[in-house]
Amino acid sequence: MADKLRAQQQLEALQARFIGVGSGDTNKHEWTSNMQRDSLSSYIGHPPLLQYMSIGLGQSREKTRVQLLERMIRPVGPPPEQQD
Amino acid sequence: MTSFSTMSLYALTVKQPSATQDAISGDFIGNGKQQILTANGSRLAILEVSRRQKGFHELYSHDVFGIVRRIAKFRIAGGTKDHIVITTDSGRLVTYEFVSDEKEKAFKTVHFETFGKSGVRRVVPGEYLAADPKGRAIMIASVEKNKLVYILTRSGQTDIAISSPLEAHKPQTLVYTLIGLDVGYDNPMFASLELDYSTSETDPTGEAFEELKKELVYYELDLGLNHIVRKWSEPVDRTANALFRVPGGPNAPSGVLCCGEDSITYRRIFNNESSVHRLAIPRREGVTEDPNRKRTIVGGTLYSLKGGDFFYLLQTEDGDVFKLTVDAPNGTVEKIKIKYFDTIPVATSICILRAGFVYAACESGDRILYELESLGDETDDPMFESDQFPVDPEASFAPPFFKPRALTNLTAVETMPSLNPIMGMEVANPTLEDAPQIYTINGTGGRSSFRTTRNALEVLDLIESPLPQNASDVWTTKLTIEDETDTLIVLCLHSRTLVLKIGDDVEEASNTGFLADTNTLGVQQFGEDCIIQIHPKGIRHIQGIQFPDDDAVATHMSLTDWQPPAHRTIVACATNNRQVAIALSSGQILYFECDSDGSLAMAEDEIALDSTISCLAMPDVPEGSVRAFFMAVGCTDQTVRIFNLSPDMEGNILRSISVQALTSPPSDLTINMMSDKSPRGHSQFLHIGLRSGVYIRSVLDEMTGDIGDTRRRFLGPEPIKFAKVTVAGEPAILAMTSRPWLGYTHPRTSVLQLTPLNYIPFKSAWNFEGSQFKGIICVSANELRIFTFNDLTDNTTYEMITLKYTPRKMVGYPDQGVFYVIQSENNTLNAYTRHTLLEEADVKKEDDDDAPMEIEVANGDMSNGHDKIDELPPTEFGYPRAAGSWASCIQVVDPVSDKAVTHTVEISANQSLVSAALVYFESRGEEAFLVVGTAKDLTFQPYKYSGASIQVYQISTDGRRISLFHETDVSDPPLALLGFKGKMVAGVGRNLCLYDCGTRSLLRKAQASNCVPTRIMDLKTQGSRLVVADAAESVTYVVHKDQVHPNRLIPFIDDTVSRHATCAEMLDYDTTVGGDKFGNIWLVRCPQKISESSDESPDGSDLLVDKGYLGGTANRLDNVANYFANDIPISIQKTVLLSGGERVIFWAGIQGTLGALIPFTSRRQHKMFQQLELQLRSDDKPMSGRDHLAFRSYFNPVKSVIDGDLIERFLVLSRDKRESIAAQLTGAEWSPGMIDEAIWNMRGLYAF
Fold first, then answer.
1. Interchain contact, B200 vs A73, CB within 8 Å
2. Where in chain B is the domain with CATH 2.130.10.10?
3. For residue B862, pLDDT beyond 60
4. Among the four residues B323, B717, B906, B1116, which has the most C-beta atoms within 10 Å?
5. Is the CB of B298 inside 8 Å of chain A's CB atoms?
């Protein structure tokens, strides 16, 4: 029993410390948003990738960067209604 | 049992990436001048700018083997130089000091602080970096949540201590930008733009999302409490994206400029509404401009003048630069003002240097250095003040306008050629030179270009003058040993010798004593004040030539002639200031030394050889001795022999010391001192040129005469001749074969570098040292030329042809030496609309000023009657924007004869061009067609289009004009086209289709529906096999079966790894190399059995019955190699790079990288390199703190590829380190010299 409690505590500590550590209650929206945000931040962080996209969109890198950041706010639309 | 992989590659970077991630100015040396620190790809470089040298040169560069994300500088109180801090993907904060003294230049790591996981991640800090202007703290932040602050303090005289990090995390908060505020010596403050999205996360209605506020947050680092606090925050404009620091301290306002869409706002901590000042960003005026389009600031810089004044240069996405000034009497801001400054290409970083230079690290195309002509106060552009605009960006106001104009305040001084971004590459040889050229399409928008890159040294022509007849040889000589500059030029014309005097101009010298009616073999300044002329019939010794009257009439004291024995002629000679050796036609070599009175004294000994002597060489007299010790003799029996000239133990001279056997008779020999990696810094080298065109350089030991440490390379298909020259103050060797080459010591790595000259071929050259300039003199037919070199660090030359829009693909037509380039520009008004708008405006103008027009007509000085409203030149100003609109064209480029664009076809139907191919249709005879894929109304976010088509163009017989033949609509944009078996295959979305050409449209002959999971990006073929690259799922092999009707296209094998392929190339029938969007290069191979069975049945019925496996095809490819290149490969090709070289895999990356992958041919070498790489990984750890193995395994574990860039670090390591690494290599005995040779061979024989 104590082991289970410790595992629970450890999980909670991890969830507090790292973004995106899921739990049994993680729903699809949370999971996909998290994944999308990870991807978007990777696009921003890798210079060649940001440049690749900027050239495709025909705009400066700074504009693309801000657009991607804006998309990180709500990458997959509003969360679903709570069902209680 | 050990198993070996069947293939191993050596990855070399041929051209470093030129896309700048960040650039800052600062005094990193500590000499009171400013340098520029730039981060390109994984490379940090320091550039020095000086007025004296007219422009910039690279002082030092270092590969950190990590993705450099941000760089910043800090100077601790009392420090004399700026330190560098960088964030990379290593999860560490690393700071450097740049050490530059006589001994070495290096980045010395000062701090090395681990703070998180490696990699570019959402919550690992490193995306943003800010240093306190007073150098007391550094803050780093991630895109979301995490922020860390390090405190810097001085400990002792010079050391800088760094604290453990303080955390300022805030979950569910995005950071847009981060800066260090200037607060003087108050507690350090940082400001960031943040957005907390937590409320939107739990609100299903979406209302909270609409109401999210962006905040400007101030963080204060309390140095007393060692604590960071979120001091204050205020909501700002929702579109805000950038912050700029406002100088603080006594009598300075402090605070920030917060830039967003259409607004620049001055704010400071604890401000109220009245102390906020806002400016709108001026918009361009013009008939083609949309007056409602709002601009944003994408970059800029603050510049502080002496005396506390300051201004900003801020750049919009159009490239317009504005000067922003702040009115702050007594330290309180009253208003801010903005004025148009100039228009320069959009830059990632703009650096203003105190010397009056502005460096623009352009996002696309060459980097440019400007000189500040004025500070923009005199121009009559409108000035806008913050009084004119409401503080609230939502409130209405009259938008400010300005008229863009040509550069006034800035003048471009120099450009730094850069290939960035490469949009396509092809290695080809339409000019039929020795070595192929690299053709690339580069740049974006108006700065697009088509470039030809060659491996050659750029030559600066100084003098070009005609000669009365063809000359075969040239020498220059001093008159006495004390002279510093050359006085005479001696030319050997056809059985005639011409002597010229170098004065203010070059004129023929008379009465010099030279024998005129003979061929000359050699000229040498001899002894104190004598000159000897060696000709086939003897040696003429002239003493004391002088030009007493400053004209071309000489006087000389005495003349002596020495004649060879009867019936013999002199065939070769070697001379230096005190020694002469001549070879006679009989195979004898006679040797002379300088007597005390300067005359020739023949030695009693002589050499008699059985074979004919073709060449002799003798080094210069070493300093402090009376004679050179050795002589080299080249014989037609394919040997080079070394003889001693100084008496040996028994007192004998002219004894054979060593013999070197060659593969072909030597055509020329020379011996000189060149700098190298030996402890003395230079060694004596014997250069051997062979008739077969092979060049050999060996070390000739100065004491023993032994030959060792040999480098060998084929230079060209003609016999080699040499000239000893001095280039950039260093001795070098000019090797002349089918074209001239320079052999020199690389300034940084101190290894031999061989580069051809970008110059006409010539057969004779000599060093030239005049009073005005130094260079190399050469004769080519009846022309005398003197030239010098610009720069030895760059071994490539460029030719550029301007293109119209962003190039997307290029297709070569090798028969005609032309390239077809398809170009498309997103969100841009197309040419037709631009013209209509301009014409409308013209008509309007004409109506408005009818009267003045008539006067002009009467005067007759205007053909058109009035000023036409001109389009702004797009190279500087870009194109007018229009959302959702595409401007596209196809251009025919002739880089060979015309060196220009020969034909342009504009596309007006809002179509974007996505692919192109040159196709020979069997049904249409011998004619080649240009096939182009288009997409109508294309948008990427989301991926949408209203139509797609394939256009077929007819090509004129000379290849220089094209005309539309027909257009066929297809269901999806065809992103890949390829001529295939007299027909054409097209990747139409997910489908692979086979088309034939009809008279009115393309006719579909076969289709593989849903051939790949996402979109077909690239197609390659060999035989009946097609390799299909997918946008997200690697490559699929497809086999074409033409024995059945309808034809079948059957995918039979695909990959296990999802690679977002950008390009692919078949290396052989089974192997494919490709690159992906994340910067990987990989090789996959089809197993032998599957490969064979795919071609077995004529109708493919057995393949069709194979069941698919896990949603893909029935079989899977084997992974052969993986490598992370840190640049997105755009084109990849299997090609030869050098004349006589082996084939390599050559690739081009979007950031301007050119790289080569070289297959290993020897297991012994491979084993050595493998061990060396392993050693270097641990003994020369990457400076970024990134683990090298992890870096090259960024997405996929590195496999079967050895990083040549890391290996080449071995060349610049210290002597001890080299020795210790070499000692640890097992297997065979490897000395550092042998390793150097192996490294040299990998680059020298395959790439450049």
1. yes
2. 20-236
3. no
4. B323
5. yes
Record: contact B201-A79, CB cut-off 8 A: yes
B456 and B464 Cβ atoms separated by less than 8 Å = no
Both structure tokens of B757 = 């000259």
A9 touches chain B (CB under 8 A): no
- B contacts of A58 (beta carbons < 8 Å): 444-445, 806, 825-828
Query: What secondary structure does DSSP assign to B136-180, as a single string?
Result: SEEEEE-SBS-EEEEEEEEETTTEEEEPPPEE---TTEEEEEEEE
A23 inside domain = no
Q: pLDDT band for position B1 (50/70/90)? A: very low
Return the minimum-mean-pLDDT range out of A67-71, B64-68, B849-853, B1160-1164. Answer: B849-853
Number of domains in chain A: 1
The residue with tokens 């502005």 is B358
CA distances from B881 to B350, B718, B873, B877 (A): 24, 56, 14, 11
* B201 at interface of A, judged by CB pairs closer than 8 A: yes
Residue A55 lies inside a defined structural domain of this protein: yes
* A57/B941 CB distance under 8 A: yes
Please state which of the four CATH numbers 3.30.930.10, 1.40.20.10, 2.130.10.10, 3.40.50.720 is assigned to the domain occupying B20-236.
2.130.10.10
Beta bridge partners of B543: B530, B558
A74 has a chain B CB within 8 A of its CB = yes
User: Using N-to-C axis directions, what is the helix angle for A47-57 and A28-45, rounded to 10°?
Assistant: 90
Domain contains A60? yes
What mean pLDDT is predicted for residues B263-272? 91
Nearest to A48 among B144, B445, B1127 (CB): B1127
Nearest Cα neighbor of B962 from B877, B882, B1021, B905 is: B905
Residues B851 and B866: beta-carbon distance below 8 Å: no
B945 in A contact zone (CB under 8 Å): no
B1127 contacts in A (CB within 8 Å)?
Answer: 48
Give the pLDDT of residue B861.
40
**Does B144 touch chain A if contact means CB atoms closer than 8 Å?**
yes
pLDDT tens digit string along B1016-1030? 999 999 999 999 999
Residue B972: pLDDT band (50, 70, 90) is very high
SS3 sequence of A19-68: CCCCCCCCCHHHHHHHHHHHHHHHHHHCHHHHHHHHHHHCCCHHHHHHHH
Q: How many CB atoms lie within 10 A of CB B1241?
A: 14
User: Which residues of chain B are in CATH 1.10.150.910 domains?
Assistant: 1137-1244
A73:B242 CB<8 A: no
The CATH class given to the B1137-1244 domain equals mainly alpha
Q: Which residues in A lie closer than 8 A to residue B444 (C-beta atoms)?
A: 55, 58
Residue A64 lies in a domain: yes
Distance from CA of B1071 to the nearest CA of A (A): 27
Range of the domain at A39: 28-70
Q: What is the torsional sign of CA B289, B293, B298, B303?
A: positive
Tens digits of residue pLDDT in B146-203: 999 999 998 887 789 999 999 999 989 999 999 999 998 899 999 999 999 999 988 8
* pLDDT at residue B1228, rounded to an integer: 78
Q: Tell me, what's the ipTM?
A: 0.94
Cα distance between residue B874 and residue B443, in whole Å:
13
B1063/B1074 Cα distance (integer angstroms): 5
Among A47-56, B874-883, B1071-1080, the least confident range: B874-883
DSSP state of B1127: S
Tens-digit pLDDT profile for residues B417-438 = 899 899 999 999 998 888 899 9
More confident residue, B632 or B843: B632
Of A62, A63, A74, the CB nearest to B200: A74
Confidence bin at B859 (pLDDT 50/70/90): very low
**Cα(B559)–Cα(B582) distance, rounded to whole angstroms?**
19
